[in-house]
């Protein structure tokens, strides 16, 4: 069913799900939502499977017109969403009617990415196991491109009609919190002296304008190598922290390549990647080293929370 017409696309709006997690061995970038927690919650609130595709909005949002009635939810950063000129609450499911128009402003506060999930899910072809848009490869989503004016987005069927499903405040991420980006040591951590690792953990880094879905370039205290920055290229993933020759860290993000030839001092843990993904140029971040066992426990805790939210949402919808 044709559901949305794109009046204005915004700065960069793409269709993303959880990405192509099982195809990196073939050289295929994972892509997917930058802030996967917000995407998953948006889907849960409208009765979808949490891995369903949604619209990822970045910094400046689109202008959408609804061609039919349905249920949507917006999560992530507050980018000034308005339905027919009236403020739209985040982290809750709402009803839209045929002819309604959804507009966004700019990400002037904390965070820079919002997610629009639609009951029934977005009906685009599955390409290499995912609906996600890979802008670099040119496939997925709407023909491998960011949304453009006059695009029509279709959705699948849904029996979900409940509105007002809300994610409790205590479970909502605080993107303005000055929290560390926790990481585990990377495969080349021994290429750095202990003093350099300590410097990395006690310094603050600014996110540069050159940052994008492929990686965040940071500026701050330069980290020195024992020998040099280059290695035989090996596997990298979202969250990998590379230290190139200039000593300025690069954190790889959703659209990163599959191999890289710079030393990796660490990997940001999965639980903290949504917070990192919401940083915009000019924001300042810092890092904290933890052990892999703690990272695993934090991951399990997050997944238990999501399971609880799913169950509560289903019960509230009956």
UniProtKB/TrEMBL annotation:
SMART domains: AHS2 (SM00797). Keywords: ATP-binding, Hydrolase, Nucleotide-binding. Residues 25-305 form the Carboxyltransferase domain. The keyword DNA-binding does not apply. InterPro entries: CT_A_B, Cyclophilin-like_dom_sf, PxpC. GO terms for molecular function: ATP binding; hydrolase activity. PANTHER family: 5-OXOPROLINASE SUBUNIT C (PTHR43309). NCBIfam families: urea_amlyse_rel. This is KipI antagonist. The lineage of its organism: Bacteria, Bacillati, Bacillota, Bacilli, Bacillales.
